[in-house]
DNA sequence: TTTT
DNA sequence: TTTT
């Protein structure tokens, strides 16, 4: 609750994919999203326009995770305020690996959908579309397998994630998920 | 120069070690520091006070790197404003690895020393002490081997880091360095 | 150029009106916009939903002012990063008054249009519409009287605003503009 | 509780005076402080070094106000995170006036003392000194007239400030206070 | 004055 | 993978 120092990340960018929603044993939701930010500049040497995209791994917890799961979609533009967190995990060979994420949680976390009518009131169901005005989806049913448990696979240390809510960060142990492509983490 | 989105990190914390300064082939300085931020809370289950420290890897470039090298020391408190950047490297076994850092560079980067008279005027030499009022050192000579070259080891692709200054991020290739203590990366 | 301390404001909100563009004697552009942010909550006493809107006075300078004048319109959603600045002026009775603004200028200033295709490429002229997809206008001609001079009225102290560009803030002297309604400043 | 938009201010600077603490009818504490941030640059025309100081009016509420009253002193360096708020009041002649402040309150508000051991543990009493290592005072008794009531003067509209805690901003009515020196408001 |  |  108290903190020594400041650990704050602010992002505005677009989702590279639909959010992935999971539920912790406690029932709390976790949403994982990836957000792109980019910079462009003119290369002084070649004179050509160049662009570099940075991909950010973001984890939202609790109510914000649910909102993300319901309203955000691939391409959605979003404002995120969270904190940096590096978590340790073991790869297949048992070697320590570290993954840094932006954790959006509790009172310090902010998630604001940008750029459109706020998913509000217009009633019309989404019908499978992927993108729409303001570029987020309609409220979505938790879909597929709701409340599926968080499944720590090779690491069997259940206790630690049974964390009481007063912890500053509800941690979770899992290897970084599989991504189907060359996302650099 | 132009950017699409916002990628901003703000940290206030203390250095876990003295800065490590290097120089790129271009002569530009790079300072690597690690900054601790922490949170404490009362564990509702056990009733005891708990604390969690997060370590942040920060890379400063150019003038700010020089200032960091001269004035910051282990324990120094600092305000940092930079951006998140994940860079790819290969470990000993040739496997891809990713490291996320806070890059402080150019016009968007800010580094402010906190907690003391600003390295200014009081004249008295430091005499080897590690920490002092305001907890940063006196201006330090680049020491040891100044202007030592940045040494990309297994990767021999010099050209890319010959980047013109107009690039948003001067990149550099190196495995994460060794730390002599329990900083988890 | 150097700074002691941090002075940063971050806003995401919608414009209450079209930007007002002026030009300083130097030819530099200044755009004044007002941005709304709001909070809503359930009143515990009455049980009803309540909302409070905060209006922010923002001044953009230079290139960002030009971009604002061209692309932003009443209702546009925008991300702003600037600094707080309070300037002193005299009201009709000669009494000192102070107005606080968010100044967006130079390398520390950021303005990002949110929520739509970035004014780019689709070619179709705007045809007098006030709002469109993504809610900003097409590039607009400086309209009316371009390059009209900044006209300090009752205060005739031209020299101070002849400021060299290396000043951290190009100041300008003018009474707060007339607003046609109850904007609270 | 919910918010549309982002309204965030981040300051790092030094207090121009000791905090002024008051108590609202509800018993909640309010601390008013002024924080200086400054920028310096070399005047290109004259070649001389110049400096400009910006003064920020900050109001802290609740627990943070109490901490501010106990530990902060004139000269203390502090990190502040709050939101911009402009409040209306009437001057002696009944004219509407507006004052913009940085409000630090609730879950979004942050106040971090910088630059010293955190009031903790070193035991040695302060002995009336005003400033010390790390530049903040020892815990201070609320002094003088604790729990003195907030005194709305010309405005007698008690009810509105009887606000339930779920309101985003506990407002208070008062003219800006007198400062004994050259702080420009 | 915006927006939802 | 996004977006312009």
UniProtKB/TrEMBL annotation, chains A, B, C, D:
Domain of life: Bacteria
UniProt keywords, alphabetically: DNA damage, DNA recombination, DNA repair, DNA replication, DNA-binding
Cellular compartments per GO CC: nucleoid
An individual GO BP term: DNA recombination
Function per UniProt: Plays an important role in DNA replication, recombination and repair. Binds to ssDNA and to an array of partner proteins to recruit them to their sites of action during DNA metabolism.
PANTHER family: SINGLE-STRANDED DNA-BINDING PROTEIN
Quaternary structure and interacting proteins, as annotated: Homotetramer.
Protein name: Single-stranded DNA-binding protein
Species whose genome carries this gene: Photobacterium lipolyticum
